[in-house]
């Protein structure tokens, strides 16, 4: 099929959009290559949902331009709609209808005749493991099943570009893995996926490139590897038995790792970044050395962990301010209505 | 030992996404031609029917409310305004039918507001179909509710002694006029359903519009008994034009002037509020 396009799936320049006093988009630039998974990573209220709504023709930007496969999202909205699909944060299927009814309804709206629409619905329900639930109302589905019917509805017409707005927020780990597998299958068939997420590991698992979004603009862009190496590849978290040993532990760590050490609010906890670019050792070797030095200094460690940098830490490193917390999101969603 | 019975409840089968199964549904097929404007609207109308099938309680509004209206006003005013409730009913039934159905039109706005709140309209708005189809289809579903309400009221009226001289044809024509007007008037509510924030505020606004519109009319009494300034309003009120038309055809005659005004009002509502609705719908 020659429907697939190479080159850029999305080109956005200087997108702005305000809701009253809130600037949800403050000059966002994006270039998404076709045929890849592209991650928009950012905290609640960063402008991810607004960006998706503008690109999916649901919202007009105040300024700037955006093109999807070369078509302007404002002046050629109808052409864009023919090639994209959106799975929003909230159920974008009708909860009162059954799984089959929802898919048949959408298939009919995409132009399939009734028998073809029924076949397509049945095939999608089977592929998404929903055959048994096909005659149940969607409001009776579990969270993971809802996500699946939502995504099934979005690929009814095998779109060239699929928007997934926080597809795994609120899902249990198993359902999250199922969604990840589905996303991988979708992209392997040539659909470009724009994924928004708050989780670095999700972007890392799925996305070929990531844009880190904050206050309505892109503050960093690159492959997951590039982003992580700019932040350091890991973080060591330590809990001591004796809070009195913390000053000494801080000194040992600083000398072993040659990085600043953060003292947490908890009087026995410390954190430090490891695996910074330019270090001669990788993160785990650095952590092992630090642990050895602490033991030799007679400091008792109760709890030790080495993890990837969290979104908070990426943010701290990129912006010098922590990721903004939850309630701004509600403002944005409210305003987007 | 305890009688530990092992319940052999079947564990819910765990879904494992299979690459092969997904591959069969992901192969891009040829895209079918887009449905026509009417086809898309009717498909959305089918959705409205499915919702009635799954949530039949919503028909309570269009059945119980009209019955209460007919019984209440027939016996409240019948003795005072005419010789008996039965006599009053000959004059009053077309009017209360119009009042009840016009009041029910506001549920179009409430329903739309709820739908948007739930997010399903985000998907509809990203579909490449004729833009007004989702709303037109929704109103098609509501039209069925209007017809149902009108028939219920007619049934109650007939049971209480309403005997229209226009016969079956006259009554059907009356209900037809009522449905035309209600379809047009529903666009007022789609507009309010889009611009107002909650279904409560839609209800609030609708009461402020509907009470004056239905009560300051010729539904309950002849306008000739009213002060001049009120007559002026009552006579231009589209509900009065509608009631006059429906009364005329149900009694076997016709009121061409009222019917002409009624159709003009209906066209005006679709033109003005349909346009405003689509403007808001596209620019949210």
TrEMBL record, chain A:
Entry annotated with the keyword Chaperone: no
InterPro entries per UniProt: AAA+_ATPase, ABC_transporter-like_ATP-bd, ABC_transporter-like_CS, ABC_transporter_ATP-binding, DrrA, P-loop_NTPase
Membrane topology label: Peripheral membrane protein
All residue ranges annotated as the ABC transporter domain in the record: 10-240
Keyword annotations of the record: Antibiotic resistance, ATP-binding, Cell membrane, Membrane, Nucleotide-binding, Translocase, Transport
Family to which this protein belongs: Belongs to the ABC transporter superfamily. Drug exporter-1 (DrugE1) (TC 3.A.1.105) family.
Name of the protein in its database record: ATP-binding cassette domain-containing protein
TrEMBL record, chain B:
InterPro entries, per database record: ABC2_TM, ABC2_TM_bact-type, ABC_2_transport, T7SS_ABC-Transporter
Topological relation to the membrane, as annotated: Multi-pass membrane protein
Coiled coil: none
Domain spans labelled ABC transmembrane type-2: 57-284
Recorded superkingdom: Bacteria
A Pfam family reported for this protein in Swiss-Prot or TrEMBL: ABC2_membrane
Transmembrane segments: 59-82, 88-112, 133-162, 168-195, 202-221, 260-279
Record-stated family: Belongs to the ABC-2 integral membrane protein family.
UniProt-recorded name of the protein: Transport permease protein
